[in-house]
Specification:
The structure is a single chain. The protein is an alpha/beta fold and about 190 residues long. It has one domain: Rossmann fold (3-Layer(aba) Sandwich). It is built from six helices and seven strands. Helix 1 packs parallel to helix 5. The protein binds magnesium ion and zinc ion. Magnesium ion binds next to loops.
């Protein structure tokens, strides 16, 4: 397996989707996530999270609460021997109620800004990265950033130009395969 950088959405991808949750106690890894990320980690991949957290803009929790969310996620993954290279979030929403965050930003997925910023921070070319998420907005953001993408969906086999897997374990299998076997999934191809 080559060692690309893999960006993951958080809610509904790595952890159970509890809407607007910022309580570390309520975070649970989805089945198979620890083992799947361990495989990538052991293959030398850098793993990072890119997550929309509009609960900040909506006034549901302060931006500072996300430090606890990041710490808990790191703790849950560390139990499987996985270290995150980064945790990136967008706190904005154009219809938010907290003025500071109620903006049309360039980092809320499906915009590519958060992934581009994460790639720059990690010193990698987005074209060498994958974006894995459970929403079409995740793969759209990945595609616009220039990444290869995997959409997690247990019922689809394909979504437009994006590769589809039922879960993170399936996504990791795809990422490990030679590119020729999974087709041209890079943006614009
Ligand atoms: Mg999600
Ligand atoms: Zn943003």
């Amino acid at each position: 397996m080559s060692a690309p950088v893999v960006f993951f959405d958080k809610d509904g991808t790595l952890v159970e989707d509890v809407p607007y949750n910022a309580d570390p106690e309520r975070m649970r890894l989805l089945p198979g996530v620890g083992r799947a990320l361990r495989q990538l980690h052991d293959a030398g991949c850098l793993l990072a999270v890119v997550t929309n957290q509009s609960g900040v803009a909506r006034g549901l929790f302060p931006e500072s609460a996300l430090a606890g969310v990041e710490a808990r996620l790191r703790e849950l993954l560390a139990a499987s021997g996985v270290r995150l290279a980064g945790f990136f979030y967008c706190p904005h929403h154009p219809a938010g109620t907290v003025a500071e965050y109620a903006v049309a930003c360039d980092c809320r997925k499906p915009a590519p800004g958060l992934i581009l910023r994460a790639a720059a921070k990690l010193g990698v070319d987005p074209h060498d990265c994958w974006m894995v998420g459970d929403q079409v907005s995740d793969v759209e953001a990945g595609r616009r950033a220039g990444c290869r993408t995997v959409l997690l969906n247990p019922t689809f086999t394909r979504w437009d130009r994006d590769v589809v897997a039922p879960d993170v374990g399936g996504a990791v299998e795809l990422i490990g395969r030679p590119a020729a076997d999974i087709g041209a999934t890079r943006a614009g191809l």
